[in-house]
Amino acid sequence: QVPVVAVMTTGGGTRALTSLLGNLLGLQKLGLLDVISFITGSSGSTWTLSHLYQSADWSHEDLSRPISEVRRHMTKCKLSCFSLESLQYYAKELKLRKQEGYQISSVDFWGLLLEKALDDGKNNHKLSDEQEALSQGQNPLPIYMILNMKEDYSLSEFKEWVEFTPYEVGFLKYGAFIRAEDFGSEFFMGRLMKKLPESRICFMKGDVVYCKNLNCINMFFIFSVMQTLHIATKEPSPSGRRHELETYLVTPECGIMGIIRRILTERVMVSKFYNFLKGFQLHNEYLQNKNFCRWKDTVLEHFPNQLTETAEFMCLADTAGYIDISYPPLMRPERKVDVVLHLNYSSGSQTLPLEEASKYFQKQGIPFPKIQMSEREKKNLKECYIFEDTETPEAPTVVFFPLVNDSFRKYKEPGVERSPAEMAQGNVDVSTIFSPYCLNSFTYTGEAFDKLIELTSYNIQNNQHLILQALNSAIQQKRQHKK
């Protein structure tokens, strides 16, 4: 009768990174962090998870230490990321990665930038290392969500959900998984043909990033300066024709410049890994398979020779390019999730990811509550909502936390009003175009960081009664279903 509880987070760059820390702090203060079985993430929220799971007992320790550490990195100047020394380091690491047998892309460069911006130096942490934080069941299972796509198709036409845990990596649709430490290696018909070293976590962080997270204006400025400083010019040969114009061929001198150029021009950032399904053939009745049909949602489902098992590489992209959610792993029937705390950090409409998720699952025949909110409600969002489907026991109860600043303006803690001198501390802009937490912001002031942590922690604590209501409702439903 004990409900299975999960935390589902969206992307949102450094806003997601910071806000998730605040939400988890709020859950810890309520004594509810220990009841969570799964935490799923995409994009920026995975940066938080990969940081926390380097500590074997993070959920039982005071979260103020990792929060202080992230604060130090979020408030430091990021110009050193583009120093000559840093560029040489990136080039060296990319060369090493290529020698190891990996396909190099702009995503790898982005991962190294993240490492430099959010760490103290080279971090040798790997995904499988996080098993240590799960060996005694002491922390929730982290699940990183990403999409496999085809370069000739848009994400609306072809995408496949891929989940990463410290134990395994695999496709929900095909039910095919491999060990986390073997991801990236070459397989054929399920046999390991060539073992590649497991990727460092920074390259996995690079996989889960949407191109909108880049501050393209600043990147273009830096690119222009670097190109000015590092170009090779070829003098034009004298021409005997007066009408011909003198021209110069300008090419980047350093190989890393081509990668930066692709970052600025790519529509969707894609990372390529060897496809571990290569060589397999789908069963001739695959379209009748219940698990396959559950996730069958692309234009190529009726053409087995065009699905993933025939591809040389997987092309991985951020889920935000389709729907900014990490729900799918929680919808696997064997996980039996009863309550989902939906923590939203995405830009634009706070309700859109949840609404799109509901429509998607309804279309797929996957039990999920219907989301019905008026336009008036969407414009004046509260801190927390509960959505449930009492007629479908298999559907999880969703406790939805949009990123809003409502009663926090007046209260510094639940039930504790602010004094006139403290009112300014409650002014946290998380919704306008002037917000310091926009997607392309990679540096916060100390005050802005602290305010976002306090707001997101408060929103959880102030709605303890709704979380407990959802848990009690799930318990009652399990009792009735058992009878």
Automatic annotation (TrEMBL):
The entry's keywords: Hydrolase, Lipid degradation, Lipid metabolism
Gene Ontology MF terms in the entry: calcium ion binding; calcium-dependent phospholipase A2 activity; calcium-dependent phospholipid binding
Alphabetical list of Gene3D superfamilies matching this protein: Cytosolic phospholipase A2 catalytic domain
Pfam families per the UniProt record, alphabetical: PLA2_B (PF01735)
Domain PLA2c: residue ranges: 1-483
Coiled-coil segments: none
InterPro entries assigned to the protein according to its UniProt record, in alphabetical order: Acyl_Trfase/lysoPLipase, LysoPLipase_cat_dom
Any one GO biological process: glycerophospholipid catabolic process
GO cellular component entries: cytosol
KW Membrane (keyword) present: no
Listed PROSITE patterns: PLA2C
Record's protein name: PA24E phospholipase
